[in-house]
Amino acid sequence: MTKTSMTLEWKLPQLKTPLPGPEAQRIVKLDARYISPSYTRSYPLVAKRGRGAIVEDLDGNRFLDFAAGIAVVATGHCHPEVVEAVQKQAAELIHMSGTDFYYENMVTLAEKLEALAPGKGEKRVFYGNSGAEAIEAAMKLARYATGRKNFIAFHGCFHGRTYGALSLTASKTRQRDRFGPLVPGVFHAPFSYPYRCPLGAPPEKCGEACLNYLENVILKTVTSPEEVAAIVVEPIQGEGGYVVPPPAFLQGLERLCRQHGMLLVADEVQSGMGRTGKWWASEHAGITPDILCLAKGIASGLPLGVCIARADLMNWPPGAHASTFGGNPVAVAAALATIRLLEGGLMENARRLGDYIFGKLADWPRRHRLVGEVRGRGLMIGLELVKDKQTRERAPKERDAVVEAAFQRGLLILGCGLNTIRLAPPLIIDQEQADCALGLLEDALTEVEKR
Ligand SMILES: Cc1ncc(COP(=O)(O)O)c(C=O)c1O
């Protein structure tokens, strides 16, 4: 196959069978027999191969991927430079354990992350294998470094499913039901969500209202700030619905932290690594977290979680915290290749294509009965669906129907929150792919609106 024909073939969706095709049906049936039913599958995609922004299923159907493995394959599927880095490292050394031995690349990546992370000054890096592990490390470190025991997290937030991370998570009750008791000392505050302010304030006052509530209710009635180790926040809520708080809300959290000696932990597991057109969503608000948590996009699909902290904070003794696999050489090699590609133009592409897509989506709330709000930054884009523009009554069933109808047209997207569609494509997409995705999404939306 010539390079051009391959590029063309792997650029746009192509469906060959009704969905799901026979092979996909076979696997879905076996999956139901053998695999934990706790996974949430929105539609029966059985992935076989991926190139760039295209995923091929077992029946040879090709889909345009605007989900990116839940915002993970930042550089697209199987980017040749990532594949080469992984193959080279796998042939050289797959594992020794960074807990007991040294790897050069652990240091190289940490040095790079120190330079990229917000804030000047020395930092240290702890490696795990997932977002949840990055959060666990941050929680343990925050307690260890401050000698305080409590945490503030936010309604709607998602930080993972291990016990510590789950204790912070307040996204859906299903994620917590019957798992308690959880880690004590976590208090949840309202998150500024201007489109539907939890405190009923108008959009432009929502940030201030939520900050006031935290400062004057939570920190005065349920935990004094002197007992709070850290405020943990997603600068843009991911699973909670791609909710973008006003910059002043995040700046207010930073101010409260500085005032009371609480640490500011930014969970950039979903919003980081260039997805918003800057390295970190925190940068859009100009805040400098004390601890930064990363995973998902960092290694283009290999498992890696990172907790970065000021060096004076990450000052715990040997044995205090560790991970057998964390910082695995193959995952770290993939991360270094990923960062090179993001620096080489993909982050800029995310900004440019994000602007292009937002431009195209700008009139959807006017043109589409179901679209209440379009929001996000870069290629982290949410469309909130509502039954009624006045009451803003949520439209969760319609949202699910649009996601399914998009799949039937060859477009992979995911929901987030109760009634929001998320667009989180790989950062390599071009304008033609953006136009194709928006066309398919609009068809799907129109079909559901007509039902
Ligand atoms: C913001 C955020 N934090 C943490 C996590 C947990 O990551 P993982 O599933 O890798 O444990 C997620 C996963 O969706 C996330 O979006």
Verbal overview:
Helices cover 39% and strands 16% of the residues. It is an alpha/beta fold and 451 residues long. It folds into two domains: 3-79 and 345-450, Aspartate Aminotransferase, domain 1; 82-341, Type I PLP-dependent aspartate aminotransferase-like (Major domain) (Aspartate Aminotransferase, domain 2). The strands form three sheets. Strands 4-10-9-8-7-5-6 form a seven-stranded mixed β-sheet, sandwiched between helices. Strands 1-2-3-13 form a four-stranded mixed β-sheet. Strand 5 (150-154), helix 7 (163-168) and strand 6 (186-189) form a beta-alpha-beta unit. It has helices spanning 3-9, 22-34, 68-71, 80-92, 104-116, 131-146, 163-168, 206-221, 247-260, 282-285, 329-361, 364-367, 396-408, 431-450, and strands spanning 47-51, 54-57, 62-65, 123-128, 150-154, 186-189, 228-233, 263-267, 291-294, 305-310, 371-377, 380-385, 411-412, 414-416, 420-423. It starts with a helix and ends with a helix. The mean pLDDT is 97. Helix 11 (329-361) crosses helix 14 and helix 13 (396-408) crosses helix 14 (431-450). The longest helix is centred in the C-terminal third of the chain and has 33 residues, at 329-361. The structure holds pyridoxal-5'-phosphate (PLP). Pyridoxal-5'-phosphate (PLP) binds at residues 70, 130-132, 135, 158-160, 234, 238-239, 267, 269-270, 295.
Mean pLDDT: 97
> In angstroms, what is the radius of gyration?
22 Å
Task: Write down how many β-strands occur, each being a DSSP E stretch of 2 or more residues.
Answer: 15
Counting DSSP H or I runs of 4 or more residues, the number of helices is 14
Q: What is the oligomer described by this structure?
A: single chain
The structure class reads alpha/beta
Biggest sheet architecture: 7 strands, mixed
Order of helices and strands: HHEEEHHHEHEHEHEHEHEEHHEEHEEEH
* Shape call: globular
Second-tier CATH architecture of the largest domain:
3-Layer(aba) Sandwich
